[in-house]
């Protein structure tokens, strides 16, 4: 596939967007890339097209972010530090999901992972949210990502594979699945990726990597509303 550089992708950042997610088996990847290759360019950072990512998620001691997602709260937040290992860039990010189904991401560059948030990081979170919740590290995640950029419309597609989660003591991995996310300015079903996934009979699935990791590592958490989804993911794997 024709490459696109990190600098050229800046105009496709889509920090305020509509997300559509899918879970599929790793065996679909070669056919998927071949079928949509003419419609997308692939992000290439220093010759690397399969980029490793590391993420540290923060939540309150009573897991408020997790509980809000589990209980279907429409306006909710997630807090994380993510490192893009191919470039070395590291960001503190606040993701907000609103009741219109839109995702807005705000972030600042930081030097490194902070297990104890610095004063400037706390100030950024307070500036974005209007308050500062008590946040502690809850979950590490890692995965490798292929990023595709649509040639003709404002759309990016991320394909995350080799997912692994850790809470410091225990590690769980999902090596046989891909979480695909189509990120668009507007909900456009004529996306080549969405159309091809539909032809493969792969249905949309709202899935959060944070919540998925939490239920795999912390079985004491309430997860009744996620059980059917977790069963479907395990069946795909």
TrEMBL record:
Residues 16-217 form the VTC domain. Pfam families: VTC. It comes from the Bacteria. InterPro entries: VTC_domain, VTC_sf. GO terms for biological process: polyphosphate biosynthetic process. CDD domains: PolyPPase_VTC_like. This is VTC domain protein. It comes from Bythopirellula polymerisocia. The lineage of its organism: Bacteria, Pseudomonadati, Planctomycetota, Planctomycetia, Pirellulales.
């Amino acid at each position: 596939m024709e490459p696109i550089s990190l600098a050229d992708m800046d105009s496709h950042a889509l920090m305020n967007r509509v997300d559509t997610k899918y879970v599929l088996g790793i065996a679909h990847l070669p056919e998927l890339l071949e079928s949509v290759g003419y419609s997308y360019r692939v992000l290439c950072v220093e010759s690397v097209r399969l980029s490793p990512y590391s993420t540290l998620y923060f939540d309150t001691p009573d897991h408020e972010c997790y509980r809000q997602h589990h209980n279907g709260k429409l306006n909710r937040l997630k807090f994380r530090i993510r490192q893009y290992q191919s470039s070395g860039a590291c960001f503190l990010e606040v993701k907000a999901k609103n009741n219109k189904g839109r995702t807005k991401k705000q972030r600042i560059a930081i030097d490194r992972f902070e297990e104890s948030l610095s004063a400037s990081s706390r100030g950024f979170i307070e500036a974005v949210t209007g308050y500062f919740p008590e946040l502690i590290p809850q979950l590490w995640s890692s995965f490798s990502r292929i990023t595709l950029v649509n040639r003709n419309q404002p759309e990016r597609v991320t394909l995350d594979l080799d997912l692994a989660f850790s809470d410091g003591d225990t590690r769980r991995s999902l090596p046989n699945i891909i979480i695909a996310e189509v990120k668009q300015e507007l909900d456009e079903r004529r996306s080549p990726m969405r159309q091809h996934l539909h032809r493969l009979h792969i249905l949309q699935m709202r899935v959060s990597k944070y919540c998925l990791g939490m239920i795999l590592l912390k079985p004491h958490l309430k997860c009744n509303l996620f059980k059917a989804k977790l069963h479907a993911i395990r069946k795909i794997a």
